[in-house]
Design a protein that fits this description.
Enzyme class: hydrolase
CATH superfamily: Glycosidases
CATH topology: TIM Barrel
Shape: globular
Family: Belongs to the glycosyl hydrolase 1 family.
Protein name: Beta-glucosidase
Number of strands: 15
GO biological process, one term: cellulose catabolic process
Largest sheet: 8 strands, parallel, barrel
Distance between the termini: 6 Å
CATH architecture: Alpha-Beta Barrel
Number of helices: 16
Radius of gyration: 21 Å
Oligomer: single chain
CATH class: Alpha Beta
Structural class: alpha/beta
Helix content: 40-55%
Strand content: 15-25%
Strand order of the largest sheet: 2-3-4-5-6-8-11-12
InterPro entries: GH, GH_1_N_CS, Glyco_hydro_1, Glyco_hydro_1_AS, Glyco_hydro_1_beta-glucosidase
Bound molecules: methoxycarbonyl-substituted glucoimidazole
Number of domains: 1
Length: 448
């Protein structure tokens, strides 16, 4: 057993998102989002679950803040629902929407917890989708107007801002693979969406700077790690294409203002091109104060002609799997964040999501002995410590998620929380993994 200790100023937090926890989907003037439309469309979400009630955090946010305070975190990442601020996406501001988030932010600050706010965690106002959504460049301006209202409303109270959560999911998962809202399956559309979201990110950063808003701004990309199964040139190239699809396609524009040319050529061979207008790439590459990285898993890949979009097949080498059938590949976290540091320099890094889904069983006394989840956290905390020790500017970690919540197309059957949500009573019960993390925070580390 070896003791691992984190820097005294290492930030510990947990993360959630508006559509996944709030509920109150028609309350106080909230407009419909694409996720209301999608989840209300039969067959799109397991069991036809939806976020109409979710964890009812809209009414129970004080319980959530109390759980955060007891956990000992110094930060809490959550998202603001655009449709609560602009029910029609643009036009009149809904003051009651702002009022809800004022109550949440004030409760957090009162508890000594810093709010870390994501502006866009997938709940696009349906009214904008009806006009083309992120395929329509007008949505960029609408996003910047929304951001400006929220920046001004919370200037000085919210000091860590994330523009987008996972543009890869907003674009490829939602518009090429089609698993998430709005559920399209068109490669060119997905590339358009990715580009316009990144331009919107850059324009929001420019607005943040122009307004002189206090605090820091960044964005969050979901990164994964695909290790070549062999050292053959074919396997190395195939694994790189897999990584580039998830990682470089977003990180290169964000940090260098360019798309990786070999991927541009690859997409061109599939008949798709990026709709770049003059000035777009400079806008996207606005300097950011930190980069958020969501990491869950990775694996090994090898060349196989015709396999997927990149002639790269996954090789099963015996990883333990979570209930999402994702590999438990903690070393992948070390590899991908080491790559970020090597490729993109000393911009501070926050792990803005990391966690695992397992089949949780409610035991006596409303306890949940989620040993597999605790073990997942231990393995990834060890890699976080390894990263800090190796000089990677890793400044903090947000566990996904505080609560079991609406897990998108999986509905409520997949639980990621360190707190168990009883969806009948909406009561919250801390799991063993909650107490493990509480102990790590309290003691600044743990016996690995
Ligand atoms: C491949 O995993 C992605 O990076 C990812 C995983 N997750 C996410 N992104 C989203 O940001 C969350 O809203 C999900 O609830 C969470 C768990 O699925």
């Amino acid at each position: 057993m070896a003791r691992i200790d984190f820097p005294k100023d290492f930030v510990w937090g947990t993360a959630t998102a508006s559509y996944q926890i709030e509920g109150a989907y028609q309350e106080d003037g909230r407009g419909l989002s694409i996720w209301d439309t999608f989840s209300h469309t039969p067959g799109k979400v397991f069991n036809n679950d939806n976020g109409d009630i979710a964890c009812d955090s809209y009414h129970r946010y004080e319980e959530d803040v109390a759980l955060l305070k007891k956990l000992g975190v110094t930060a809490y990442r959550f998202s603001i629902a655009w449709p609560r601020i602009f029910p029609q996406g643009t036009g009149e501001v809904n003051e009651k929407g702002l009022e809800y988030y004022r109550k949440v932010v004030d409760a957090l600050l009162e508890a000594g917890i810093e709010p870390c706010v994501t502006l866009y965690h997938w709940d696009l106002p349906q009214a904008l989708q009806d006009k083309g959504g992120w395929d329509n460049r007008d949505t960029i301006d609408a996003f910047v107007k929304y951001a400006e209202v929220v920046f001004k409303a919370f200037d000085g109270k919210i000091k860590q801002w994330i523009t987008f959560n996972e543009t890869w999911c907003v674009s490829f998962l939602s518009n090429y693979i089609g698993l998430h809202a709005p559920g399209n399956t068109d490669l060119q559309l997905a590339i358009n969406v990715a580009h316009h979201c990144m331009v919107a990110h850059g324009e929001a950063v420019k607005k943040f700077r122009a307004l002189g808003i206090r605090g820091e701004i960044g964005t969050t990309h979901n990164l994964s790690w695909c290790e070549p199964y062999s050292k053959s040139a074919e396997d190395v190239a195939a694994a790189h294409r897999n990584r580039a699809f998830n990682n470089e396609w977003f990180m290169e524009p964000t940090f260098k203002g360019t798309y990786p040319q070999f991927m541009v050529d690859w997409f061109a061979s599939k008949g798709a091109k990026v709709p770049v207008l003059p000035g777009d790439m400079e806008t996207i590459a606005q300097k950011i104060d930190f980069i958020g990285v969501n990491y869950y898993s990775g694996g090994f890949g090898r060349y196989k002609k015709g396999d997927g979009l990149f002639d790269c097949e996954e090789v099963q080498i015996g990883f333990d799997k979570t209930y999402m059938d994702w590999n438990v590949y903690a070393e992948g976290l070390y590899k991908v964040l080491s790559w970020v540091h090597e490729e993109y320099g000393d911009t501070p890094i926050y792990i803005t999501e990391n966690g695992a889904c397992y089949e949780d069983v409610l035991a006596e006394g409303n306890r949940v002995h989620d040993t597999l989840r605790t073990d997942y956290y231990k393995k990834h905390f060890i890699q976080c410590h390894r990263l800090v020790e190796s000089g990677v500017p890793l400044k903090g970690y947000f566990a996904w998620s505080l609560l079991d919540n609406f897990e998108w197309a999986e509905g409520y059957r997949k639980r990621f929380g360190i707190v168990y949500t009883n969806y009948e009573t909406l009561e919250r019960y801390p799991k063993d993994s909650y107490y493990f993390i509480q102990d790590v925070i309290k003691n600044g580390g743990f016996e690995a």
